[in-house]
Specification:
about 550 residues, alpha+beta, three-stranded antiparallel β-sheet
């Protein structure tokens, strides 16, 4: 082949091996899935170092907050990290004292570590409360000054973040306050301030601020509870995701004391009765008579001269009645529900025709009225306080139904997300095709040529390889080509085929014999000649048959 051809062939072979190795490595590359998300850089660094030290393949995103490992190694990676105590929430607890030694540790460092450990343990305990995703605790434990009669009071502040879209309400805030106050010595519950991650004050020491925060928390809790209640009862009818509910609650913010007193005139009872009787008598002397008779009582005026006598009596009665009455006192604390307003948006009905088309239909007024009655019953509707409930049926723009064309990602978005996997598969197919075309196919062709050479060598000199059964020859069959070449010489001439001599055809050998697998007829003499050849040279005949079988395979 020459030096240049050999060098070119060697270069092509090396290039094929390199492309094959690179393509296979790209095709069998593992799929990485996120192991942990939203990690701090410091925590992600510790996780990556631990996994790489254990022999895992690790990838991180450009921000360093997502750590990914091959999909088949997720479970083992998490077990390895759990054994190493990773990942933690960034707030160590009493484990601060596990690795710290007493040598070189002064009292100040011990107090600081104790404070940090107490804060970390409280934060972990708060995160176990349902609905709390993260928490941070700050404790202020002042020391008593020397020769001071009063001891400073400790205080604490807690910042909590709800899980998902859930808000931390007053109930959770009170539980957090009770937990922190019970865990810190001499800490009064009123000295614990609870804040939300959005900046709202849930509980505070200031009475006014605490009342306002409590009011907002109570209002949010009532609205959330009513919304869930309405959504649950509507989902049973219209299906999940086909109803949007918004609830607005107005609460009283002032404390009111109302005193009422009423009287019923028909209800009277005698309370007291007072009776007074009075009688009076007097006498006067006769006209012209001067004496002391007028000044003497009548009982002692016996024998006295006649005079004018007067007597007088009177009776007076006083009756006091008690009238029935009612006194009532009503105290309205802040947080009482004044008004409830509910807005419900319901998706319509999608009907699927026989041809597969989808038709949208608004809900009937009768159905909307029944749904409105259900909503009123769910919220405890009170017309007297001005409650308002509105139920409307409108088509959702972002609705995705199972029977129609789903609203999802476009073809371009799907293609861009799966482009690496698609390119990887196409590249692997291209590599396999190149190997088959440039490597396997030439090798098979070369093997075929070698088989043909071996078959030609196995035939007698000047003979051609006969065709397999079922193949057609345009003239005489190739199986008798060697025998047909013998008569072309002079009569009586012999042809040598690997040491074999073909005798001239005997008389009557020109009779034609028809064979189904051969086009045209064959002279009987040639068949007899080949039979004799096979009997005299069985080894050479067996080689020819084997070469035919190899070509047919």
């Amino acid at each position: 082949m020459g030096g240049k051809r050999l060098a070119l062939l060697g270069g092509i072979g090396a290039a094929l091996v390199g492309v094959l190795f690179f393509g296979l490595s790209f095709a069998v590359a593992p799929d990485y899935v996120p192991l942990y998300r939203d990690m701090s850089p410091a925590e992600a660094s510790r996780v990556v170092n631990t996994l790489e030290g254990a022999g895992f393949k690790v990838q991180t995103d450009p921000s360093g907050s997502i750590v990914s490992v091959p999909q088949e190694d997720v479970a083992r990676a998490r077990m390895e990290l759990a054994g190493a105590g990773l990942p933690n929430d960034g707030t160590p607890g009493w484990e601060l004292f596990d690795e710290a030694s007493g040598l070189g540790m002064n009292s100040f460092m011990q107090r600081v570590n104790r404070l940090r450990a107490l804060e970390g343990e409280l934060a972990r305990s708060i995160q176990t409360i349902d609905g709390v995703d993260a928490a941070r605790v700050h404790l202020v434990l002042p020391e008593r000054e020397p020769f001071s009669r009063e001891r400073p009071r400790p205080s604490a502040s807690v910042i909590v973040r709800g899980r998902g879209s859930r808000q931390v309400g007053l109930r959770e805030g009170q539980a957090i306050r009770a937990l922190v106050a019970a865990a810190v010595p001499d800490l009064a519950p009123g000295q614990v301030t609870v804040l939300s991650a959005s900046g709202e004050t849930i509980l505070a020491d200031d009475a006014e601020a605490s009342a306002e925060a409590s009011m907002m928390s109570v209002r949010a809790g009532i609205e959330d509870r009513l919304s869930r209640r309405i959504a649950e009862i509507l989902s049973a009818r219209v299906g999940a995701g086909n109803a949007r509910v918004q609830v607005s609650v107005d609460l009283t913010t002032t404390r009111q004391v109302v005193r009422e007193q009423s009287y019923d005139p028909s209800q009277r009872v005698v309370r007291s009765t007072e009776t007074r009787e009075e009688s009076r008598e007097d006498s006067k002397a006769a006209r012209g008579e001067v004496g002391v008779a007028d000044d003497i009582p009548a009982a002692l005026a016996d024998g006295a001269p006649a005079a004018n006598r007067n007597s007088q009596s009177s009776t007076n009665e006083i009756v006091n009645y008690e009238i029935g009455g009612t006194q009532s006192e009503t105290v309205r604390e802040p947080g009482e529900v004044e008004k409830v307003s509910v807005a419900v948006l319901i998706n319509g009905i999608y009907n699927v025709a026989e041809d597969g088309t989808v038709d949208y239909q608004e809900r009937s007024p009768e159905e909307l009225e029944r749904l409105q009655q259900l909503v009123q019953s769910a919220i405890g509707y009170d017309e007297g306080r001005g409650d308002d409930v509105s139920v409307v049926s409108l088509r959702f723009m972002d609705y995705s139904m199972d029977v129609g064309e789903p609203v999802g990602q476009s073809f371009g978005q799907t293609l861009s997300q799966n482009l690496p996997s698609i390119l990887r598969g196409l590249f692997a197919l291209a590599v396999i095709g190149a190997v088959l075309m440039l490597g396997v196919r030439p090798a098979l062709r070369k093997m075929g040529e070698l088989n043909e050479v071996k078959a030609a060598e196995a035939l007698p000199a000047g003979a051609k390889a006969p065709a397999l059964p079922g193949q057609q020859a345009q003239a005489q069959p190739q199986v008798l080509a060697a025998a047909q070449q013998a008569p072309q010489g002079l009569p009586g001439q012999q042809a040598a085929h690997s040491g074999t001599v073909l005798d001239p055809l005997p008389a009557g050998a020109g009779e034609m014999v028809n064979i189904a697998s051969v086009q045209g007829g064959i002279q009987r003499g040639w068949i007899n000649t080949v039979s004799d050849l096979i009997e005299r040279e069985p080894d050479d005949a067996l080689k020819v048959v084997k070469s035919w079988l190899a070509e047919g395979a």
